[in-house]
């Protein structure tokens, strides 16, 4: 099928083909174009070089004799018949959004259309009663990992330091934060693609405390909560001793920040291969602490 459209304007942008694993290149609006010619051979299995403006050959996508990515994480999937990428808008825009053109949202979907030079369709959000023709999107493992990580909902540390009141120079300070599955793990979440899924598991392996005096403390976990009956004993697993007061600070306080270091493992469903990495989650806000120096009188 050959389409010849006469339009006003001319596109001067040069399009760089995008790689499937690393989306790139430049996609320009094609609302202004001079002469657009599209040649599409659906279902072609030719092993030769592609010809014409747009074509899909042996699972690969071509436009203007150049191979381009059939799927782009930001743009959606490519249609060789129009020279455009189509990305489903999710969630659906509200019913009063002008992209619906007064239609009932139940009758179709809104797709973000991004067209290349020489395409036969205008760019921008458009209504489709059925999914535009094109190959189904492939699964991007990196994107699924990010989605699975976001689905874990890792909670920032809710910090505590004791004994309560002012800390004292030379006295042991207990450090801990509220313990829950969301703040220490283990947690698990899955992101599903079109063909495969990625499952992320996570657990806190270390907590780093910035004591705001130039020193940090590394603890193996969330720490042990202090009790009044423990007096001036030391914490068994997370503690610190200040060597100078906070009197030199403008407001007389130090500001502590705990960062939980999560060990995350992401596993894909098709071949069970996995990758592990550390993911830091800092406290939402600092913990103010006044450090006093006790003077002994003879």
In words, what does this structure look like?
The chain is mainly beta and 298 residues long. It folds into two domains: 2-128, no CATH class; 141-292, no CATH class. It contains two helices and 21 strands. It has helices spanning 141-152, 181-184, and strands at 2-6, 35-39, 54-57, 60-63, 66-68, 71-72, 76-79, 84-88, 109-115, 124-128, 159-162, 167-168, 172-177, 187-192, 197-210, 216-219, 239-241, 254-268, 274-282, 287-289, 291-292. The relative contact order is 0.12. Keywords: Signal.
Task: Report the mean per-residue pLDDT as an integer.
Answer: 76
Listing every helix as H and every strand as E from the N terminus to the C terminus, the arrangement reads EEEEEEEEEEHEEEHEEEEEEEE
Q: Which structural category fits the helices and strands?
A: mainly beta
Task: Report the uncertain regions.
Answer: 1-58
């Amino acid at each position: 099928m050959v389409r010849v459209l006469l339009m006003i304007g001319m596109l001067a942008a040069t399009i760089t083909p995008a790689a499937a694993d690393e989306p790139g290149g430049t996609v320009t609006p094609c609302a202004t174009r001079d002469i657009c010619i599209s040649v599409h051979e659906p279902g072609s299995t030719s092993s030769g070089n592609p010809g014409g403006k747009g074509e899909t050959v042996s699972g690969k996508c071509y436009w203007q004799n150049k191979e381009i990515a059939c799927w782009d994480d930001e743009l959606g999937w490519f249609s060789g018949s129009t020279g455009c990428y189509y990305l489903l808008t999710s969630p659906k825009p509200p019913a009063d959004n002008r992209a619906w053109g007064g239609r009932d949202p139940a009758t179709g979907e809104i797709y973000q259309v991004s067209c290349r030079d020489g395409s036969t369709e205008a760019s921008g959000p458009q209504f489709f009663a059925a999914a535009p023709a094109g190959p189904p999107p492939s699964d991007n493992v990196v994107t699924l990992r990010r989605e699975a990580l976001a689905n874990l909902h890792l909670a920032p540390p809710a910090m505590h330091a004791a004994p309560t009141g002012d800390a004292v120079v030379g006295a042991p300070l207990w450090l801990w934060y509220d313990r829950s599955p969301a703040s220490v793990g283990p947690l698990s979440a899955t992101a599903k693609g079109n063909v495969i899924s990625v499952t992320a598991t996570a657990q806190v392996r270390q907590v780093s405390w910035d004591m705001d005096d130039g020193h940090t403390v590394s603890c193996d976990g969330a720490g042990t909560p202090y009790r009044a009956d423990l007096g001036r004993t030391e914490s068994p697993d997370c503690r610190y001793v200040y060597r100078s007061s906070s009197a030199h600070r403008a407001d007389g306080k130090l500001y502590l920040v705990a960062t939980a270091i999560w060990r995350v493992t992401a596993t894909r469903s098709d071949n069970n291969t996995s990758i592990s990495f550390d993911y830091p989650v800092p406290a939402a806000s600092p913990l103010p602490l006044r450090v006093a120096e006790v003077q002994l009188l003879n």
